[in-house]
Amino acid sequence: MLRFLRKHYWTFGLLLILMSLLVFTRVIQPNFGTFGLEALTRAALPFAFATAAQVIVVIAGGIDLSIASMMAVTSVTAAVLMDGASEQFAFVVIPIVLLVGATLGAINGVLIVITRVPDIVVTLAMLFVWEGVALMILNAPGGGSAQWVQGLLIGPILLEFLPEAVTQWVPKAFIVLVVSLCVVWIPLRRSNFGLSVYAIGSSDMAAFRSGVNVNRTKIAAYAIGGLFAAMGGLVLTASTGIGAPIPGPYLLASVAAVVLGGVILGGGIGGLLGPIIAVLILRLIRTDLTLLSVDPNITTIVEGTIMVIVVMAGGFMASRRKTK
Amino acid sequence: MAASPILSARHVAKNYGAVAALKDASLDVAPGEVIALLGANGAGKSTLVKILTGAISPSAGEITIRGNRFNVSSPADARRAGLVPVYQEPSLIPDLNILDNLKLGSTPLEAFRHWLSELGVPDVDLIELARHQPLAVQRVIDLARALASEPAILLLDEMTAALPADLVDRVLDVVKQQKPLGRSVIYISHRFPEIAAVCDRAMVLRDGKTVGDLPITPGVEEEIVELMLGDAIKATKRAFATATVSEALKPRLEVSHLSAGSKLTDVSFDLRAGEVLGVVALEGQGQDELFEVLAGMTPPDGGGFSIDGTPCRFKHPADAIAAGHVYVPGDRAEALLMQRSVRENIAIPFHTRPSQWGLIDMAAEKAKVDAAIDRLQIDTRAQGEVQRLSGGNQQKVTIARWVAMGIETILCFDPTRGIDVRTKHQIYPLLRELAAQGSSVLFYTSELAEVQLACDRVVVIFNGKVVDQMDAEHADEPTLMRAAYGLTADDALQQAAQASASEPVV
């Protein structure tokens, strides 16, 4: 147990910060309740998926700058396909969009592996490419979304066997997030492929020598990143009812959450839970600063400062642990 | 030799563009045979290893395993074909724990534990991250992992380079155990005593060609060295130079009751002007801490040292350098700017003081650098980047920068680790020459034979204390070995085992 705590001290620390922030929010805004929580989760959703996409790529030792553009491509793909189609057709659209996302990611990975151009350069180029593709599919915000898909994200969960006092505190969007992430992440973490992802991020030479197929693992990691980005794109379309071809502010936010979440940018270290909590923290800070009617320009300064302080404190804690 | 070979390589060659890294290598390994693969740096040894382990594919030639064509394009393929390598550097994934590392290569756990205890480190914490294990333990884990996969052919590349003497013996024992199991071993090492102890035959490479394949018999070392060196310089015999250093000379560096960290408890010795003082110790007896303190990288916990009679307390390596007191680390990557040129690497200490941050006098710099390159005979054909130099030449660059600066005390930490014989025999005379010109050299070595080759005196450290001091002429290997284990053989062995077992895992 102690070992578990020690190993995941970062995640627990973040959880603690999130809890205190929630309490703080309640203090400064006594009205902050079920509705506020739901709004927060819904706003955090695309950021969370963007972050998940970044997490797997960064753990594999890469970085994907094209995440926001891939979200745009998948968002407009979903919006165009669902526009005017029947409600049931959305059941077909979702898997198609997820497949598109995974393919986009895989293309990033293949290009990196084949050209041997650094990840950051390839994905920077693909940022522009995917942005263009999104605009070709839909040159202005538009399209549509099936009603039930939109409904998936709105309101609290409805479970008859649980009293409303409980369910009203659990937004549907939260369940969508947890289920979507777990379905991909848990099998991955438990598989040899997951180990390989950590291995190539930690040391690709050692991984190669241990018999890991480094190239294939890298491509797969990027493909899963694309898959998460597609979930993000779907969420964008579902929450607004239309597709948005212009990439949102998700790229830098995803890198920020990854760093704050305890994933080392060099690769090989970190998990998914920490960065997801970090997303919520960053969103909540924004909400709080708005509630406190702080100048929005100062908001970003505060966010940046917090990031450096938390990462610095983490490094300090890590070095303390070492000397102990 | 009568049995049909399990591995057979015929006329293997590898070209990189116009450059031939390997021209014509042939090798036969019979089941249960231990073959030494020898060659100076640049002879093509590492290229052959890369080909055998599937990291690169040969440009020409044929390799067969059990008569089947050996068609591998990755280490995973080589493993399936029965050839498992243990590389010079640890190949464990640093951020995974040992258990996950084993899972990654589907290593059977029981067999792994068995070999781990055979190798004398049964108490490894398997859920600790690989990066937190001491280097020597990582090497042993690497070997145990390879053995557990029951390879038909085990390839050990400089396996013992970073190991303390006690673990080396265990490794050699385990290599001998493979013979009756019918498993073959390709053993790559620069250390003749080890080769004599375990190998049946030696294959010698020179300039990319197989130049000899001879059985190991007493006295074959000379012949092998001649084959390896070709027309180049013969291995220099020890020239006793102790006479030049008189007891009367006042010490340059006086270390008294120095302690640091948990390992270095109480070390005192004198280093005189004009001498090479050897330091011998088993792994983890405090020698790392000693050098770190002397080089100004960590402050001492107790005791102190003085240079030319003035007590010193360094806050930063720059202080030590200013005092003419420099450190040459065993790991060359710690000392060099790998992507920069030889010249920049040698010249970097000239310009580190803020007062010297102005324009660089290129002509003066070049003159100093050229003089140092000349003096150390650094092969600078690969001018562009230091990382393209051979290990031996890289090591020379780390020393050359201080020679160019005219430094007076050089602290060398295992400078010949993983370097070929030829370069080693260039480094010994270099150290001697520096001493003859009045410099002082502190020389930690993990190869006991080097003491008589290069040193005037030697101090032996055990358990953080100096346990013995002697003149080099009395310091033959058995004497040093006994001293390194802490005087009396039997209980010292136990102590050493305890010391290494209780080594704190960070």
Note the main sheet of chain A: none
The separation of the N and C termini of chain B measures 48 Å
Say what oligomer this is: heterodimer
Instruction: Output the CATH topology of the largest domain in chain B.
Output: Rossmann fold
User: Total helix count of chain B?
Assistant: 18
Order of helices and strands of chain A: HHHHHHHHHHHHHHH
CATH superfamily of the largest domain in chain B: P-loop containing nucleotide triphosphate hydrolases
- Number of extended strands of chain A: 0
Helix content of chain A: over 70%
Overall mean pLDDT of chain B: 82
Question: How confident overall, as mean pLDDT of chain A?
Answer: 90
Helix content of chain B: 25-40%
Task: Work out the strand percent of chain A.
Answer: under 5%
The span between the termini of chain A is 19 Å
Could you say which overall geometry of chain A the principal axes of the C-alpha atoms support?
globular
Main sheet record of chain B: 6 strands, mixed
Low-confidence stretches of chain B: 232-237, 239-243, 488-496, 501-506
Low-confidence stretches of chain A: none
Strand content of chain B: 15-25%
Our count of domains of chain A comes out at 1
CATH class of the largest domain in chain B: Alpha Beta
